[in-house]
Every structure is written in C-alpha cells, then in structure tokens.
Amino acid sequence: MPGRTMPAGSSLKLTVAIPTYNRADFLRQTLAGIAAQQFPRDHFEVLVIDNNSTDHTRAVVAEFAGAQPAPRYIQETRQGLDYARNRAISEARGEIIVFGDDDILVRPDWLAQMAAPLLADGPLRRIGAVGGEVIPVFPHGLPDWVKEWHAPLGFRSDAGPLPPRHCPMGANLAFPAWVFAELGPFHTALDRAAGNYFSGGDSEMVRRVRAAGYEVWFTPAAAVQHQMPASRTTFRYASRHAFDSARSRVIDRAGQPGAGTYLAGRLIANLAKAGAFALLALFNAIVLRRGAAKQALVRAWRSCGYVYQIPRSLCGRI
Description:
The protein is α/β, with parallel strands linked by helices. Helix content is 42%, strand content 18%. The chain contains nine helices and nine strands. Strands 1, 2, 3, 4, 5, 6, 7, 8 and 9 form a nine-stranded mixed sheet that branches.
C-alpha cells in the first residue's frame, strides 16, 4: 500500500496521522496541541483515523473544524491499530508521515523538531525513520509497584542515528512516505485491536527499514508526553499487557530466519520462568509484600504469553 504521490509543485511536507479508538477526551488534548504547532500551516495536514470508536470521537474532531489545517476525519472499519496506520498511509498527501498516539501532549515545536532530520535528508534518502522522545505521565498517579516499567526512552541527548538494539516507539514516530512505497505497509497481525494488547507493528516496520540499509534516528527535542490513565496502572491491565506483548514478540519472531530453534529454546526457558515467578509471587504474598507479589505475577503472565503462543506459531497459527 504505497503512500500517495505528491502533486507537482505541492508544498505539503507533512501528514500528521492520529489513529484512535474510544479515547475522545484524550484525543481533544492531542488535537489542541497539534492546532498550536509552529510549523507552517500550509505545509502539513492532519488525519484522524477512527478505528470504530463508540464514544464521541467524531464530535471531538468536528470541534477543530476551524483549525488551520482542520483535521480530516477518516473511518477505518477493519479493527486494529495497524489497519488504521495503513489507512493513514493510503490517505496521506505529505512527503513525511508523522504517527502520533491519540493520548499524547505535544509542544508547539513538536512537528518542526520531528521533521527536521528527514527534511534535511531530502533526496539523499539515508534516513528511513525518526522517533521522538516519549515521556509517560500519570494524571491519576502511579503506584510504586509499576514504576520500574515506565520511563522515558532516553536513547541519546542529541538528534542522530540509533544502534540496532534501540527502537523508537510508535507513539511518536515518523517515516518518509517513500519508505512505504518501497517496503510495504505495517504488518496487521501485530499491534492492538479491540480486546487485545498486542504490540510490535512499529518495531517490525523499523526492523524492515534497517534491513533495507536505511538509518533510524532519534530526536529527543521532539518529545511528547504520553498520558497513562489509572486504568493502565492496574494489575489487570499490566498482566494482560505482559501476556499479549509476549505473544506479539513470538508472532513477530516466527517470521524471521531461524525462528524454530529460537522459539523452542524460549518455550523451555519460559516454562521454567513462569513457575519460578509464580513461586516468587506466592512468597511475597505470604510475607505481605503486595507490590512485589504483583510484579512477580506480571512477569509470570509474560512468560505464560510465550508458552501459550510459541506452540501456536510453530504450527502456523496466530
């Protein structure tokens, strides 16, 4: 699914793409920040891709009809974050597509900082992706037991390329449109849909960019605040997220060379880990260390996600 070609003489540099699902009130704050951008108004467009929301998402987008540019509301009925991302690619008219989550808070220079490396790269085509800093914020507070899992990326202090071990987050990630024409769209078996917390579509796309020989950059000045409501700091959310994230990693790894041997080893290791973490959780519960017990159970659930998905993937199932 290639991005749309730019018409001759067009000045549209950026497409800001915001996939969304049932987060209308957070989306309002994101769109307000985009409306205040210092980037030239006639050089970017805003797409809101509604992935079957049942709340007042459409009405929130309509509130910004007077913004310049006004966001364009697009409905994508195939459920899943990467279906929404791919719809944005097919609708985009900008030379660069900047993907943002529907619950980020942005500074007025966000787009300028995000686009700078790709605009400077221009026809050289050395850079295939640029990620910005993502800073988690907790409007309703953060329980101590989940703190270690939430921190800024902190990959580097200045704009520049990342080593392969580091991957930017899809909450704040830009690609030149030609990348999708050359490498194809996002992998729709990964990333979340209603009812699951899958992830990994962004990292799989970044890996393709690197495999094609292009650089992946990080620009800390293009920082966003990623809002994490109370519903994302509960044990129920953390354990389900851990389970589904592990499943996503297996699905992603299953398509790579040498997957069979690697996954068989992971299966054995995670069978042992699941039992060990469950015992650790029981011990901590007995000695009344509730936070530590929750942490151990979340880790046990992550291992269970591997144990559940590996046999399925080895049999060619999702």
